[in-house]
Write a structure and sequence with these properties.
Blueprint lengths: L25 H21 L3 E2 L1 H4 L1 E8 L6 H9 L6 E5 L5 E6 L6 H15 L3 E9 L1 H29 L2 H25 L2 E2 L1 H31 L5 H33 L5 H29 L17 E3 L4 H12 L3 E3 L6
Parallel strand pairs: 1-6, 7-8
Antiparallel strand pairs: 2-4, 2-5, 3-4
Length: about 350
């Protein structure tokens, strides 16, 4: 039985002759990026991050009010009167869900369990317990230290890889772009007061991998064009390279964003901050690969002779002259143009 196969050639989302002048806006983009990085550092050292229980220790209790919206002000009044230190209460998801954070007690784990029991008893039967997490101070400090080590170790490994894969100018541009992505993401979390826990560290590591992958694709095209166009102006060459990889960059980013949006909308409150970090990181990583990593090559003075030369075409094979006078003439012309003529007894 014959099954007809449809002749579908695909659809081009982007034209193949784009000439967007990215380098025209590199000065403005660098200025904005420096402002964002400085602002992020300022927020980190002044306002700080809203560290989760993973990093500061303490208890986290998630409850749900059975009879309509939870009365947050009444809950704060009751729990602050217990004498167990700082108690943070916030609504998340629906108006019936409440997240309660109890700071680490000075008496150790036994006192922490007593404080949690006081909170649960005070809330009463009107609330349903959904999740309880307890992290000690020693574990939280170790998690914070290992999280920082993981982020910086990944950045160093990426620098080494890009340096061996390309030239040092490409590695310098890539590391500046990666630091930009991490700092701006941390600044947004500090500005919005979002909880920063181990899941956000995992998101930062994922963002680094995505951003360096995008930067490597653009850098590879830039190096290829540096070998190919020896006399083209460097800004024009950078524009050409970014435009040639723009379709891949945008489509890959939109595909990743579609999956992250599904997690952000339907994944629930537990992974909402993680999904937000991933979404913001993909957007800022795409921006940095085009407007930071690539333009920095012009400022760092990448030289065409450091990237090698374009591969030479293979030598022409032997030209065999046919046994006719016309064939001999064609063979002689081929020999003068670089080919090798094989003597033919019949032509003699």
């Amino acid at each position: 039985m014959f099954f007809p196969v449809p002749d579908f050639k695909g659809f081009d989302f982007f034209p193949h002759n784009l000439r967007i002048p990215f380098m025209r806006y590199k000065g403005v983009c660098f200025a904005l990026s420096l402002i964002f990085m400085a602002g992020s550092l300022g927020l980190y050292f002044t306002k700080g991050l809203n560290y989760g229980v993973d990093f500061v220790g303490g208890s986290l209790i998630e409850v749900q009010h059975k009879n309509g919206p939870a009365p947050l002000s009444e809950m704060r009044e009751k729990l602050n009167a217990l004498g167990i230190g700082s108690v943070q209460i916030q609504s998340f998801g629906s108006d019936t869900d409440v997240l309660i954070r109890v700071e680490q007690q000075k008496g150790g784990e036994a006192e922490q369990q007593v404080a949690m029991k006081k909170v649960i008893d005070t809330l009463g039967p009107e609330y349903t317990q959904r999740r309880i997490e307890v992290v000690g101070p020693a574990v939280s400090s170790e998690l914070r230290r290992t999280g920082l080590i993981a982020v910086f170790a990944s950045i160093i490994a990426i620098i080494i890889y890009v340096w061996f894969r390309f030239e040092w100018q490409f590695a310098a541009g890539t590391v500046v772009a990666l630091l930009h992505d991490v700092l701006v993401t941390i600044g947004v979390f500090s500005l919005l007061g979002l909880e920063f826990d181990l899941s956000i560290v995992a998101a930062l590591l994922t963002i680094l991998g995505y951003s360096v992958n995008d930067s490597v694709v653009v850098s590879d095209r830039i190096r290829e064009n540096l070998r190919k166009f020896k006399r083209m102006d460097l800004n024009d060459l950078l524009n050409l390279s970014i435009n040639e990889t723009l379709s891949r960059t945008i489509l890959t980013g939109m595909t990743a964003i579609a999956g992250i949006m599904a997690l952000l909308v339907f994944g629930g409150e537990v992974i909402r901050n993680f999904s937000f970090a991933m979404l913001f990181g993909i957007i800022i990583g795409t921006y940095s690969s085009m407007f930071i990593a690539a333009p920095l090559l012009g400022y760092l003075g990448v030289k065409r002779d450091t990237v090698g030369s374009a591969p030479k075409p293979a030598d022409a094979g032997p030209v065999i002259a046919p046994a006719t006078s016309g064939g001999a003439d064609r063979a002689n012309k081929a020999a003068r143009s670089g080919g090798r003529q094989v003597p033919n007894k019949a032509a003699r």
